[in-house]
Amino acid sequence: MRILILGGDGYLGWPTAMYLATKGHKVGVVDNLAKRKWEAEVGSSPLWPISSLQERIKIWNEINEVEFQCNYQHTMEMFVCDIAENRHLLYKIIEGFKPDTIVHYAEQPSAPYSQMDAQACVYTQRNNVLGTLNVLMAVLHADKSIHIVKLGTMGEYGTPNIDIEEGWLDVTHKGRTDKVLYPKKPGSWYHLSKVHDSHNLEFACRTWGIRVTDLNQGVVYGTDTNETLLNDRLATSFHYDAIFGTVLNRFITQAVEGVPLTVYGTGTQTRGLINIRDTIRCIELACETPADAGTFRVMNQFTEQFSIMQLAKRVQAVAIKAGVICVMNTIPNPRVEKENHYYNAKHTALTNLGLIPHLLTDDVLLDIYKQVEKHKSNINKDMIQPTVKWRQ
User: Which residue, 9, 204, 298, 304, shows the most beta carbons closer than 10 Å to its own?
Assistant: First the structure.
């Protein structure tokens, strides 16, 4: 299969590219390298140094040739393109590469970043929504049979007082029934951009006959995959700061540094989580079983649900076992969100396709803890505390 990965320089995009290449697929990577610029804007940086995309691909192709005995046809290709700004270049890339599948990671991924100010809000919406629209236009232009696998987010749904289905909801109203897209109530400008994406993707499927799988992903954790471990310069990024870092990364880094874990509000907010190894496996499963033409298929991509307080207590217990004093602080919630809420999200589609989850065990937490501890000298404590508030 020929697979084009948009956003291939990112935390998830890069490990996905390597993993799919080991499965014998021809992989192309597209990125505008903007994530590194966004990090510089806010003073953030990954906990350990990350090689340039050019260097990573060069090293990967060298390893690939020796380790997996792949010929030139299976070397990874790189394309630099801002898909939101340069639709015609995107057309040329897709026409030239001729992908069977496009995996779309290429979006500004941070809720706090989108809430910083007017410029960041508008940029997030423009980058994410226009980028996805340009992908749709490019597929329509080049080949409508190309399967788009789009990374969505569980944050699109919000925290409704009913079960969260996988994308669609059967509704009975005044004696009549219909199937509608599940109502969305996102919690940030970033999550709202993802909702717009979903509506645009569904419209394109319904009107143009395009095929799309929308993967609504939970919070991802983990530092390594089999492929990143092959060489230090193939590592993927690990963010722990309050802008680009996820909650589990932040807690583990705070525990290593010996500062109190920052639990927002009551800590009763519940979220779905998934291991990075399961993320790349989910992408593989979606690629191997494409949606039918004209179908907007939605899968909820997470494996477990935890409250924020449960995660903090799990990290605290692991830190104490490692011989570190670890305390928790509840702080005023900088976000506007329900803290006490019902949360029951369905997530059976991917397990039905064959996903066998890696669960969040104490051993997994300890492995991440040890990896962070190795790079403790790089931790910038000033970046851990939240500085962005939702309510202006």
Answer: 9
Beta bridge partners of 263: 330
What is the distance between the alpha carbons of residues 99 and 82, in angstroms, rounded to a whole number?
A: 18
Annotated catalytic residue 182: no
Span 139-192, pLDDT tens digits: 999 999 999 999 999 999 999 999 999 999 999 999 999 999 999 999 999 999
153 is catalytic: yes
| Annotation marks residue 123 as catalytic | no
Residue from 11, 150, 194, 223 carrying the catalytic annotation: 194
Do the domain assignments include residue 262?
no
Nearest to 134 by CA among 104, 171, 166, 172: 104
Q: Is residue 313 in a domain?
A: no
The structural domain count of the chain equals: 1
Which member of 153, 228, 262, 270 is catalytic? 153
CATH number assigned to the domain comprising residue 211: 3.40.50.720
262 - beta bridge partners?
A: 329
Half-sphere exposure (CA, 13 Å, Cβ side) for 187? 20
Q: Are 282 and 355 in contact (CB under 8 A)?
A: yes
Range of the domain at 86: 2-239+274-304+344-358
The active-site residue, picked from 19, 113, 182, 190, is 190
